[in-house]
Design brief:
heterodimer; A: alpha+beta; 4 domains; ten-stranded mixed beta sheet; eight-stranded mixed beta sheet; 20 strands; about 65% helix; B: about 220 residues; alpha/beta; Rossmann fold; 10 strands; globular
């Protein structure tokens, strides 16, 4: 009995192969975009975990100096006092154009690291590491570059490739790191090892100036990038939802077309429960098939996007992410689970209706459209309810979750309101239509709404997302460009190879330029309200350039005078928002150094807290502040001559000198790279929406013929009807695009004013870009036109005998 | 002569034998003709060819003196708009238009909307109370009356009707046929009707029978 029933059910798909292909394509697309995002997230998180495992030894407590580095002698003294500690020195190191992170550890005392474990079988590795030249461990691609770059370096260290080392990191012995970083006799922190002898003098007595900080469960990078991954996940979920619209529409139509068959099967004695079970199994089998195809596509999409996402994460957060993709069983499992759950959710309504269908009710496809029209009012109410719930969520739930709840409420609510809104517009259009064909066209479009509504909802979501995200990115870019103009005030930037050369360069430059602005900073771990944050404190000299240009968002009276007198501090927006402090509050940078906050400045693209104090104050509270980078003020025309003179006088490499324009171009290039993935996902979502329209039109094809054939018989040509089909699709897409504009702008506002603040710690002004809207409008029309072209072509080429079948067959 | 069908043949693609083998007949203006025959005998095919809805393989058809074989798609559509009207068994009304709009549709397409004539037709067909309804809200008999009204509203030279009462019960069928014949005569339209029913066929001016693809 089951076999016979299954064969009967399956015969529908055999007779409607296009519908089957549509269903599978919808499922595959939904799964592909979702699983691509998940693959990217999983790869990034695995990279963070690897990085944390390599260099973090995160579970251990550590000792740090609030004012910056710790002299090596302090470590030696504590070791002599019996404390089991392991020193770590970290810093940024330039290799040509690349900026690398060097982590120096003491291999004999440091807790086991995966990269070292891999070297355990090589008896020469450890001696090589602690020998004079030393050994550098790096990821394979970096190791190759390192070997080439260091080839001519005297007493060069050996380089070994290791898959265990995160990208962009060089892992080495602390002595080698000190040499590479130019920081002899310094360490950044000491790890307090778990097994300590009994009866030791307490650390608080031996080193009262050092802070003991608890071990961290997760990595900093993972926490910092959480919001980025949440954004990607939200995008993936949106694409998934758009794909499910296709599934919902196709499954709904298939069930409506099989109503007569279902009645017949029941009349022949098949129990409804068994029939429902069989239909459920059929849908799940299709979901599994579509999901598998989607996973394959998702893997390809993820592999294509991952290099850009890795660049984004490096640019925004300095997060080390590898560009290669690994196939993970958990990813396959979760992708298939999403495909099954999504299909079930999209099919539940159709299954429920089929299960409740009385045996003897008259079959009719028209009933489908009628019911959909009746549901329109309920749908509108649900839409309004969802929008209200989103607004309520923002008010009740704080943070990113509240922000995303607002977005979800707005988007889904607006999507549900679309069909009633379009119906109202079409009614208006019909009233104003002149001529019998125009009247029919408007009326026909309205009658088609229940069938094509879901696809238009998908288009609305895709367009609104494009407008919203596009406005956000472009507003950000515009603000960022303006901010760069304010922030990059020097005409030329120079980087010395070490502090001595830095001092020499500064002396040489003094009579040759209008001002030499040293760029010196050191990391502090503040106390008070900002405890637990790492704040990079910059010292600035008193120069008009800062007072005239620095991008201050909030200021207290006499702000610059007080900061330059060493009486106050400026902090960046991220620190202000994260800690909830601003002008009027104070910041405790070190136990003996507390300053009132005189202002807050914008600092886009920087994930960490930052502060600005007068240079003398910084030097008074921190020892060994590197003095290698300088901004130079001089007439722009003199930049090339001075740069050449500097290069020759100090034998500087080309990368040590960069002019303002090049730096701005570099920053903007990084910015643009950052949003490549967003643009790609935007385009893919729009593509899925276009496909949704195509599938709707194709699946509605069998319903269209009985409506078109009488008009043809009464004297309209097939080419006229085909043109009208395309016009109908274009008009519906145009109306949808018009309605998507306010929704997109609302989305942009929510992204800029709510999500960005929560995710990145900065708020941006919103700018409008009407030309982009026009471009998107044209793109939407193109997508709708292309989607309608295939059915229209089919209609144009349809033999009259096929149209005449409409008059001969009962439908 | 309004309609001249001369030695027309037609074979459907994929079919092993022709559905029409040299059919010839004529129909004068204002005349009514019934065509009967077994299922599959080619009655509907001949009707479709006469209405310029489909193409024939051999022979010629003249409608209002115009040969159909030389017409392209647009020419055939123009001929249908201006000279021919159709009534089908399935009614084939336009579901998105109201009864009033359906009634006026063909006349407006043909560029001959005559408000008074359409109002009279509406009254005669008993549809005055139903003009704001949509096809799905009507019974079968009511839908067929709308289809007849739509066809005659354009005052066509030729009305082609394919089993117009095939979907109706006997009472509705008789009422609809009475009305159609009455209105056809009143408007001076020629009627070419395909039916299974000998009783209906007998009520028309002429009666032909189609068998094996030929008029017998």
């Amino acid at each position: 009995m089951r076999r016979a029933a299954l064969l009967a059910l399956w015969s529908h798909w055999r007779r409607h192969p296009l519908q089957l292909a549509t269903l599978l394509a919808g499922l595959a697309l939904a799964t592909a975009l979702w699983s691509a995002v998940q693959a990217i997230n999983a790869e990034a998180r695995a990279s963070y975990a690897r990085a944390a495992a390599q260099i973090g030894a995160g579970g251990l407590d550590r000792l740090e100096a609030p004012g910056g580095p710790i002299p090596l002698a302090r470590y030696v003294a504590l070791r002599r006092a019996g404390w089991q500690l392991s020193p770590v020195l970290e810093g940024s190191w330039r290799l040509g154009e690349r900026r690398l992170r060097v982590a120096g550890i003491e291999p004999l005392s440091h807790p086991p690291l995966p990269a070292f474990a891999a070297l355990a079988e090589d008896a020469t590795a450890l001696p090589q590491m602690i020998a004079a030249g030393g050994l550098l461990l790096a990821a394979p691609d970096l190791a190759a570059d390192l070997a080439t770059a260091l080839h001519e370096m005297p007493g060069r260290p050996q380089v070994r490739a290791s898959d265990q080392v995160p990208p962009g990191l060089v892992l080495t012995d602390i002595g080698v790191a000190a040499r590479l970083l130019g920081r002899p006799d310094q360490i950044d922190r000491m790890l307090i090892l778990p097994d300590q002898p009994i009866g030791l003098a307490p650390l608080s007595a031996l080193a009262p100036d050092l802070q003991r900080l608890p071990g961290r469960a997760g990595s900093d990078t993972a926490r910092l990038t959480d919001s980025f991954h949440l954004n990607l996940t939200a995008f993936g979920l949106l694409s998934f939802a758009v794909g499910l619209f296709i599934v919902h529409g196709t499954v709904g139509l298939a069930f409506e077309q099989r109503r007569a068959m279902i009645r017949t099967l029941r009349a022949l004695g098949l129990p409804m429960r068994l029939l429902t079970g069989l239909m459920l199994a059929e849908v799940m089998a299709l979901a599994l098939l579509g999901g598998l195809v989607g996973l394959g596509l998702g893997y390809l999409v993820a592999a294509a996007l991952l290099p850009d996402v890795a660049a984004t994460l490096r640019g925004l957060y300095g997060a080390p992410v590898a560009g290669g993709l690994t196939l993970r069983p958990a990813w396959i499992g979760s992708g298939l689970a999403m495909a099954l759950a999504g299909t079930l959710a999209a099919s539940l309504h159709a299954l429920w209706r089929a299960a409740r269908m009385p045996i003897l009710a008259a079959p009719g496809l028209q009933a489908w459209a009628e019911r959909a029209a009746r549901a329109s009012r309920l749908q509108a109410l649900a839409g309004l309810g969802l929008i209200a719930a989103g607004l309520g969520a923002l008010w009740l739930i704080e943070g990113l979750i509240g922000g995303f709840a607002l977005l979800a409420g707005l988007m889904l609510g607006a999507a549900l309101l679309l069909p009633p809104a379009l119906a109202a517009l079409l009614r208006l259009g019909r009233r104003r239509a002149r001529g019998v064909v125009a009247e029919w066209l408007w009326a026909d479009m309205r009658a088609q709404l229940p069938g094509i509504g879901l696809a238009l909802m998908a288009l609305l979501l895709a367009l609104a997302t494009n407008i919203g995200v596009g406005t956000m990115v472009k507003s950000f870019r515009q603000t960022f460009t303006g901010w760069l103009d304010q922030r990059l005030i020097s005409e030329l930037y120079v980087t010395a190879t070490d502090d001595d050369q830095g001092a020499e360069i500064a002396r040489w430059l003094a009579p040759r330029v209008q001002a030499v602005l040293p760029i010196r900073s050191v990391d502090f771990t503040p106390g008070g309200a900002a405890a637990g944050q790492t704040v990079t404190v910059y010292g600035v000299v008193d120069d008009r350039s800062y007072r005239d240009h620095w991008p201050l968002l909030q200021t207290a009276p006499r702000a610059w005078d007080r900061v330059m007198a060493g009486e106050a501090v400026f902090i960046n927006e991220q620190l202000a928002r994260r800690v909830g402090i601003g002008p009027g509050d104070s910041l405790t940078l070190a136990p003996n150094w507390q300053l009132p906050i005189a202002g807050v400045y914008s600092d886009y693209g920087n994930p960490t807290g930052q502060a600005i104090v007068a240079m003398p104050s910084l030097l008074a509270h921190a020892s060994a502040v590197p003095n290698r980078r300088f901004g130079l003020r001089l007439p722009a025309a003199e930049v090339p001559v001075l740069a050449e003179a500097l290069r020759q006088r100090f034998d500087l490499p080309a990368s040590a000198l960069i002019d303002n324009a090049a730096l701005k171009a570099q920053s903007l290039a990084i910015f643009d790279k950052t949003f490549v993935v967003t643009g790609a996902l935007n385009l893919l979502t729009l593509g899925v929406a276009g496909f949704a329209i195509l599938t709707s039109l194709l699946t509605l094809w069998s319903l269209r013929l009985p409506q078109i054939a009488p008009v043809w018989a009464l004297g309209l040509t097939r080419s006229q009807l085909a043109r009208l089909e395309i016009g109908r699709s274009l008009l519906l897409a145009a109306l949808t695009a018009l309605l998507a504009l306010p929704l997109g702008l609302l989305l942009a506002w929510a992204l800029l004013a709510v999500i960005n603040v929560q995710a990145f710690g900065w708020q941006l002004p919103m700018a409008l870009f009407p030309l982009d809207w026009l471009r998107l409008f044209a793109l939407a029309l193109l997508a709708a036109g292309l989607a309608a072209a295939l059915p229209a072509r089919r209609l144009y080429r349809l033999p009259p005998s096929d149209l005449l079948k409409v008059f001969a067959n009962a439908r | 002569m309004l309609l001249e069908i001369d030695d027309v043949t037609k074979t459907y693609a994929g079919a092993s034998r022709p559905v029409l083998r040299g059919v010839s007949l004529t129909l004068a203006a204002g005349q009514t003709l019934a065509l009967t025959g077994e299922s599959g005998s080619g009655k509907s095919t001949l009707l479709h060819l006469a209405g310029a809805l489909d193409r024939f393989d051999g022979g010629e058809i003249h409608l209002s003196g115009q040969p159909l074989s030389g017409l392209d798609d647009a020419g055939r559509a123009a001929l249908r708009r201006s000279h021919v009207a159709l009534v089908f068994q399935q009614f084939n009304l336009i579901p998105s238009l109201s009864v009033a709009q359906n009634l006026a549709f063909h006349a407006r397409l043909a560029g001959r909307p005559d408000r008074d004539w359409i109002a009279r037709l509406t009254e005669r067909l008993g549809l005055a109370e139903l003009t704001l309804r949509y096809p799905e809200q009507l019974s079968g008999g009511q839908q067929q009356r709308v289809a007849i009204g739509r066809a005659l509203a354009a005052r066509p030279a030729l009305l082609l009707a394919d089993e117009p009462t095939g979907n109706l019960d006997e009472t509705a069928s008789t009422a609809v046929m009475d009305l159609m014949l009455e209105l056809v005569r009143e408007s001076g339209t020629a009627l070419f009707l395909v039916t299974h029913s000998q009783a209906i066929a007998r009520r028309l001016d002429r009666h032909l029978h189609l068998a094996g693809g030929r008029v017998v």
